[in-house]
Amino acid sequence: MLAGGQGFGIQPAIVDQIAGQIEAVHNLGIEIGIVIGGGNIFRGLSDEASGMERASADYMGMLATVLNALALQNRLEQRGVHSRVQSAIEMMELAEPYIRRKAIRHLEKGRVVIFAAGTGNPYFSTDTAAALRAMEMHADIILKGTKVDGIYDKDPERHSDALKYEELTYFQVLEKGLKVMDATAITLCMDNKLPVIVFSLHEKENLIRLMKGDVIGTLVH
Fold this sequence. Notes:
7 helices; Carbamate kinase
């Protein structure tokens, strides 16, 4: 998402647009934790990482999420939204170390918390980090903002006849092999009865509409 039309790196206008959506939700008094990916800079499972040891590639991907987290924090702070970056990999000069009770306290004080560096461990995806942090924060729901407006039976960008699902169970996602979140993340959500909504972040009002109860994207529960 953060790469915009250029396909890589960080496009400031996109970061600002996402920050604006978060600000609108924050102004409703809703507590927000954000888990951010790093695929616009480096993805562990990619052609660029081929030939690399998986653990090293994954660590590089985690560091990429820190860059994105700092970019988003900067835009939020410019909009007057107080935020904190907590990193699962310790880097004291850039971000707080991830401490669960401290993160909960930030949320209680009305700060947006951005969780960077995934889980801090290789072989775990950003989706799994999102599921883990959501459960640790006692979140009500995971909102997964993507480039597409929900979950389809096949890639809608490649297949014009792709079918969109309005609602799915966790088991259906696993059974159908739908690639919206990896199996570990879906299983974690299923075991803890944590619902997930997959929606498009391209539409500027979608996040605030979801918070106001509009039916958008695909619900997994």
